[in-house]
Amino acid sequence: MILDAREISVRYRPNGPLALRGVNCQVRASELVAVAGPNGSGKTTLLRALSGLLPVEGGVVLVDGRPIQQWPRRLLAQTVGVVGQQEEAVFPLTVGETVMLGRYAYLGPLGVPGPRDRTAVQEALERCDILTLADRPIDTLSGGEWKRVRVARALAQEPRALVLDEPTASLDVRHEMELFELVGQLVQDGLACLVITHHLNLAARFANRIILLERGAVRAEGTPGAVLDRLTVSGVFEWPVAVTTWLDGSPQFIPLRAGENPSVP
Amino acid sequence: MNAARVGLLTLMVVACIALGLSAGSVRLPLSDVWIGLWQGKGAAAAIVREVRAPRVVLAFLVGGSLAVCGAALQAMIRNPLAEPYLLGLSSGAGLGAVLAIASRAANPWAIPLAAFIGALAAVALVYRLSLVSGRRLDPHVLLLSGVVVGAFAGALMSAVMVLSDAPGVRNAFLWLLGGFGSASWRSLAVFTAYAVLPLGILLFHARSLDLIALGDEPAHHLGAEVDRIRRVVYLCTALLTAASVATCGIVGFVGLVVPHAVRTRFRPLHRSLLPLVFVAGGCFLVLADVVSRTAVRPLELPVGVITALIGVPIFALLLRRTLAP
Questions:
Q1: Using the 8-state DSSP alphabet, how is residue A209 labeled?
Q2: Cα separation of B115 and A12, whole Å?
Q3: A-interface mutation test, from B221, B260, B263, most A Cβ less than 10 A away
Q4: Closest approach of chain B CAs to the CA of A234, in angstroms?
Q5: Looking at this predicted complex, what is its ipTM?
Q6: What pTM value is reported for the model?
Q7: Which CATH code, of 2.40.170.20, 1.10.287.130, 3.40.50.2300, 3.40.50.300, is assigned to A1-79+160-230?
Q8: Which residues in A lie closer than 8 A to residue B134 (C-beta atoms)?
Q9: Residue range B229-273, pLDDT digits in tens
Q10: Do residues B163 and B104 make contact, with C-beta atoms less than 8 angstroms apart?
Q11: How many domains, chain B?
Q12: Which range marks the domain in which residue B226 is found?
């Protein structure tokens, strides 16, 4: 088990409301786990707790079996890569330089990259299909390219687990699919992957397991087929949906318009 | 950085220093400067060796240090408008120094320490004021707090200068306007002693500055100890600013103008940005000092006036750009 959150509870302010209540979340190697849920259900809070940004009030976050607070920062960055929801460059570097920042946790005191670091960056650029962009300044990239650069930077960390927060937000269909296909490939190659997403339909097709959050607690967890039934989804998202089954057997959802009847497809 | 670029930079530095040694209330031709530097006899030699050489070297080092402070602070608060003067560090340091003089601690080695305490107090106050809703640091609020704290420290400084009857306080008024008129080999030694360590530490943290400039969360995920790096940058910039203010008064906008000029030409990582900014900042302040000495000859303008005249329009330009949607 690479990422293992056990019964964690999190509060942003002392005496404030609980943002997470007794949440369990486990990710193994070669496994893609999707976290879904309505806005404000605690998805990003879970990411923050899993990456050591937020201290947990109850429960424990284990990384590779060891409590996360005991990890030195650099060692943690060599084990877990995180791609946050948004990032804005104030002083733009080139794509190659940006991905090289992923090697920070490996560099010596003088911060000079060696051959090992250059190879890792090269591989990460190839993996994400952005090798040709290496010399481009990042403020000239499209939204999809910028997402890929940040995934490449996380891959340059050579992590064993990758955590992505809404990686496909504001991407068009092609870039969205390309990103999920990339993540699927990485998982096949042995990476443990946690993806926070609003895309139930994509999660159902790519994820091995889905964790459905509702108001800071786990509402359901399991394989997409087991978790994503019509009543659960319409209950959690407070909107009626119809469900069909795609060729690969994954459940796919269609949100209903007012007055539509879910039993008549 | 390639050899041609290093050569060009060296040439630029040599030209600035030569100009700094030759210009002034008495204009010395370069040949006299050269002879004066190597043969210690005559009036030209006395002017070059005892007056202008320490002045030019001090201006270069102070300019470089202030520019490096600006670049480091800009990376940390992710805003190109940050610099020691606008963030209130300079005024805090000035207040510390004036209090030291008013309490008759005339030792030139003690004044930078008092200025350091003043700068740290100012930065702590600015930081505290700009924590919006608990923990989030808004760069624009930070700048606003910096200006307000700077104004407050400036008011206290004026009060101390008017009320104190300690010798030297009257001179503090002129000194605070910023200038190298009283530069000597001793003030150069004091400044260098205080500046070497923080400059080295900031250079050593160049990679960390690259990460911090991405924002706290990405920096954390990439393995940076964000809080520790923040403390290091605050301490080093406070110490550098304090050493500058204690030796040559409040010189604003160097930390704003120079990194901006360097960034319009290059998009460097801090490993090359910091040395570039240091050299460019040094040249900038040497040239500004030349202007201050020659513009209204035989009088001298405070060099802070020159840097402000150049800095304010650039500030306005950057402000428009950063606030534009």
A1: E
A2: 38
A3: B221
A4: 33
A5: 0.92
A6: 0.91
A7: 3.40.50.300
A8: 13
A9: 999 999 999 999 999 998 999 999 999 999 988 888 777 889 989
A10: no
A11: 1
A12: 54-323
